[in-house]
Amino acid sequence: MLTRRNALKILGALPALPLLGDSNQRQSPQPVMLPAHLSPGDRVGLINPAGAIYQWKTIRKIEKILRSLDLVPVRGKHLLDTYGYLAGTDADRVQDIHDFFDDPSITALIAARGGWGCNRLLPLLDFQLLRRHPKIIMGYSDITSLLVAVTSQTGLVTFHGPVGVSTWNEFTLYYVRKVLFEGQAVTFSNMTPKHDIAEDEMEFNLIRGGSASGKLWGGNLSVLSAMVGSEYLPDPTGTILFVEDVDEDIYRIDRMLTQLKLAGILEKISGFIFAQCTGCTPENPDHSLSLMELMNDHIYPLDIPSWIGFLTGHISNKFTLPIGLPVTMDADRGVLVMNQPAVV
Question: Is the residue at 181 inside a domain?
Answer without folding.
Answer: no
